[in-house]
């Protein structure tokens, strides 16, 4: 067993999880056969993941569908027992689910809800106040703060079932953070929300992180969440950590090109620009193209020399482009808006 660095908020070494999956042929005969002899297959969802997070760090946890993100977060919050390896969160072993540990963490799953459906959110908050033994003055202060940052005025006394998806998600977040946890596991916290609501959730998470120096692990299919909140990125693929670093290095590793944006003084066709780079698009006197990272200066110099350019800017590739480079067709599109 390794010892965790004394200041690590999250310490993970060689963490593993294998699920036993029962397999059954389709149809009635399949059911009969599986009744007589049951076939079991091991799915290695997480295969030896290691990382450390220091207090206050916000990391984006990315990977294609089925990579092992949710399984890792469930192990770190103690909902699943690892098949091997070691995890410590805020100094606790998550699998023991000690009360003192549960007071330090929260797990928010955008697809699941903890609020009581038929009651106003305020009632669920009071239940959480009792469960986490939050003193009255702290409860009132936190409620004031969350109401302010999340704009909860006017929705707390409505039945949860009557709230819009975005209003409900705001209440879910407030309920999950009411006990002021120091470590946040946020699994798709903005899923299905419209762009404004996604921005409110991001602003809330940013504010909470700064106010309480909270450590945050965030998974999201909306890359804007990740770029807005996280400086460090962990990428998991088929249960293994394949990247740990900043966005710029991830772009370098993925081999994604840079984007050159042009403002032209006289029109140029896409065919002409195709001689300078790829993924060319032209809209009147504006154009953009993608060029290999190592050749940015040479291509930019040629464009400036050959064409009548009013302005030229160079941008890093979007994180969507990076993930597409890394995982190609396995990268899921952002989910469609959910209706409730
Ligand atoms: N309860 C379970 N029983 C069996 N297999 C499971 C179970 N939960 C997850 N898996 C499998 O483990 C693997 C990892 O799943 P996990 O949900 O952790 O991935 P993920 O990265 O969160 O994916 P997504 O982005 O689609 O939510 C997948 O192959 C999945 O099918």
From TrEMBL:
<dbReference type="GO" id="GO:0005524">
    <property type="term" value="F:ATP binding"/>
</dbReference>
<keyword id="KW-0813">Transport</keyword>
<protein>
    <submittedName>
        <fullName>ABC transporter ATP-binding protein</fullName>
    </submittedName>
</protein>
<dbReference type="InterPro" id="IPR003439">
    <property type="entry name" value="ABC_transporter-like_ATP-bd"/>
</dbReference>
<keyword id="KW-0067">ATP-binding</keyword>
<feature type="domain" description="ABC transporter">
    <location>
        <begin position="10"/>
        <end position="263"/>
    </location>
</feature>
<dbReference type="InterPro" id="IPR003593">
    <property type="entry name" value="AAA+_ATPase"/>
</dbReference>
<keyword id="KW-0547">Nucleotide-binding</keyword>
<dbReference type="InterPro" id="IPR027417">
    <property type="entry name" value="P-loop_NTPase"/>
</dbReference>
<dbReference type="Pfam" id="PF00005">
    <property type="entry name" value="ABC_tran"/>
</dbReference>
<dbReference type="InterPro" id="IPR050763">
    <property type="entry name" value="ABC_transporter_ATP-binding"/>
</dbReference>
């Amino acid at each position: 067993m390794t010892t965790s660095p004394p200041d690590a908020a999250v310490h993970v070494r060689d963490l593993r999880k294998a699920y036993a999956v029962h397999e059954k042929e389709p149809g009635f005969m399949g059911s009969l056969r599986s009744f007589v002899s049951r076939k079991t297959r091991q799915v290695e969802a997480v295969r030896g993941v290691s990382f450390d997070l220091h207090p206050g760090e916000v990391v984006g946890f990315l990977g294609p569908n089925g990579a092992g993100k949710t399984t890792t977060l469930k192990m770190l919050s103690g909902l699943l027992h690892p098949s091997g390896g070691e995890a410590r969160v805020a100094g606790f072993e998550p699998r023991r689910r000690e009360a003192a540990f549960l007071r330090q963490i929260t797990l928010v799953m955008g697809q699941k809800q903890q609020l009581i459906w038929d009651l106003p959110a305020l009632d669920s908050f009071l239940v959480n106040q009792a469960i986490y033994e939050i003193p009255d003055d702290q409860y009132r202060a936190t409620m004031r703060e969350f109401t302010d940052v999340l704009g909860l005025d006017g929705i707390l006394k409505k039945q949860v079932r009557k709230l819009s998806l975005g209003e409900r998600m705001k209440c879910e977040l407030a309920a999950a953070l009411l006990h002021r946890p120091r470590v946040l596991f946020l699994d798709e916290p903005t899923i299905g929300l419209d762009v404004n609501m996604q921005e409110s959730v991001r602003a809330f998470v940013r504010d909470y992180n700064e106010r309480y120096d909270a450590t945050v692990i965030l998974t999201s299919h909306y890359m804007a969440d990740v770029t807005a909140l996280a400086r460090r990125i962990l990428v998991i693929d088929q249960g293994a950590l394949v990247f740990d670093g900043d966005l710029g290095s991830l772009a370098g590793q993925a081999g994604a090109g840079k984007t050159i944006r042009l403002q032209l003084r006289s029109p140029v066709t896409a065919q002409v620009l195709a001689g300078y780079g790829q993924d060319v698009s032209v809209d009147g006197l504006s154009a953009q193209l993608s060029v290999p990272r190592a050749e940015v200066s040479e291509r930019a110099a040629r464009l400036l020399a050959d064409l009548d350019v009013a302005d030229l800017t160079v941008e890093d590739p979007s994180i969507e482009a990076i993930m597409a480079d890394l995982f190609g067709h396995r990268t899921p599109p952002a989910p469609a808006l959910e209706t409730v």
